[in-house]
Amino acid sequence: MRFLLQRLAFYAFTAWAAVTINFFIPRLIPGDPVQSLIAKNQGMISAEAMQSLYVLFGLDKNESLISQYFDYWGQLFRGDLGISFTFFPTPVSDLLTDSLPWTIILVGVTTVAGFAIGTGLGVIAGWKRGSWVDGLLPVTTFLSSIPYFWLGLIALTLLAGPGSFFPSSGGYDPGTIPGWDGTFIGSAVQHSLLPALTILISSMGSWILGMRNMMVTVASEDYVTVAHAKGLPERRVMVGYAARNALLPSVSGFALALGFIVGGTLLVEIVFSYPGVGYQLFQAVGSQDYPLMQGIFLIITLSVLVANLFADVAYLALDPRTRKEG
């Protein structure tokens, strides 16, 4: 319990630091976002209206920086991430509500599937060295060294195009109304196949290699030898003794992978013009939409922190040594 409380205190402090840095980012960037917004829309407004925009964006020059800082915390507790410049006057929280499910479903499913398949194959490859699974390592290692976006470009060139089953861009067919019906779901799944395949192929190789090497190390430990001497079934020794202990180093990597689900596939979403958070961040950077960038950075940071907290809890469950005091 003491270990868990210490980790909670650490993550609480890290979250406070992340929010504080996120507050100062748009205030340290050169330029005036309000003036940029007005110039982009080629409009002329009164001084009163301009002051209202400063207040709306939390940049009121009549308030001290400390007051703005506490106001920003108040907005966060209300779930208010500000107003987007690009999609003015749409709130950033509404934009993230629309894009987050696309990224979480696509990258979340492929990350979990890649970890499960890669770890399972790594267990078999490390336990049964010299088998056909062990022979897959050179191929999977080569594929994992290729960046996501490059595999995506290759997939678009070879598999997408006129008359192909795989669409080349977008999250669903033009003209389809989003909703929980068969037409929309089928279209969304069809558009996600190529990006998902790209992420799965690129990520699976590292899990196989890491788990295989750990299984080779753990297989020579004394407790595995004792389990064999007891006459326990081969499958139980492999899974319950060797794989459980070999899995521990992969837990942290998996937690980080889950944390980066929100923004870790920026280039893949750009290549496929997929309507997720990564593609939205690309649009925000191109249009200097500071509030939207600020909201996305905050979501990514908090996602990584929550994922690492889950990793610590998983360590407590998998390794009894971490539950002992002193």
Question: Describe it for me?
Answer:
The protein is an all-alpha fold. The protein has two domains: 2-77, no CATH class; 93-323, MetI-like fold. It has helices at 2-28, 33-40, 47-56, 65-77, 92-127, 137-144, 148-159, 182-218, 222-229, 234-246, 248-259, 266-272, 277-286, 290-318. Helix 5 packs parallel to helix 14 (290-318), helix 7 packs across helix 8 (182-218) and helix 7 runs parallel beside helix 12. The longest helix is centred in the middle third of the chain and has 37 residues, at 182-218. 29% of the residues are buried. The mean pLDDT is 78.
Structural class: mainly alpha
Distance between the termini: 12 Å
The helix content, as a percent range, equals: over 70%
Let me know the CATH homologous superfamily of the largest domain: MetI-like
Number of strands: 0
| Low-pLDDT windows of residues | none
Protein name: Dipeptide/oligopeptide/nickel ABC transporter permease
Membrane topology: Multi-pass membrane protein
Organism: Amycolatopsis mediterranei (strain S699)
Pfam families: BPD_transp_1 (PF00528)
